[in-house]
Amino acid sequence: MIAHPDENPHQLASAAVVVGTDGSPNSDAATRWAAQTAARKQRGLLIVHCLDLAGTRAALGSYDAMEPSVTAPMHAHGEHILAKARELAHDVDPELAVVTELSEANPAKLLIALSETADLVAIGATPGVGTLAHLGSTLLAVVSHAHGAAVVVRGTGTGEPAHPRGPVVVGVDGSPVGEAAIATAFTEASERNAELVAVHAWSDLSDGAFAGSTYLEIPIVDLEIAEHALLAERLAGWQEKYPDVTVTRKVSVFGPRELLGKWSEFAQLIVVGSRGRGGFNGLLLGSTSNWLVQHADCPVMVVHPK
After folding, report:
1. Which of 45, 157, 174, 245 has its CA 20 to 30 A from that of 211?
2. pLDDT, tens only, 111-127
């Protein structure tokens, strides 16, 4: 474990921004994004790198993986990765409070545990080298099971944030569970001094309800009107709470993947809820979320109610 004197990494994780790194360009992009976010929120930044010794031992099928001759180079490499990540964070803001942690734990389990008290957890988006880069395991486990907000960051190749002047875009469904995503999106838009675009897709609705009737019971000619009314209802209280945020509402016949994917070409952040219904049915674990974290052109934030 590497830390500043008198600072405990897990204590810093309380209300801090947490980012996992494996030293790849994609995790470097996530580190820069997390540093920018921590500086804007006036939070500390906790950078973690996991060796996953138990996973290494299982993969090798031998206890030799626990020998110092094997683990010592892994620790040294991990310390090098964290030192580089600290430099990247301080390039963003030299005054940023940064703590690094080198852990032997499973990366997904550690990031999920840290998310219980963190402001948010960030991770790089695409596969590469290292335990924090496996899209099918660590990334999706964190996105699926984190507490609060988990952000998937795609590298831009320049180290700069994607579409920094673009809007924050939130996917709005018809369920109370989506309130956490709406609340987070308004907060993010306010902090970024950005427009908020609230989008709602209804073309593939199957089991949602509006005004006591299922969607399938509503005549097609009235369905779009009903969906506009539902979206307005979901946003009303939040617009009053955040009068500084300009809100644009969009209702579309296109499916959520196409709609949010298109907006990611212009947005600085996409925000979605953790248990979508209606047009966003199965958003977290289904094809839409999987597609977004792999292909969206901007960071994607998946919000779980704490």
Report:
1. 245
2. 999 999 999 999 997 54
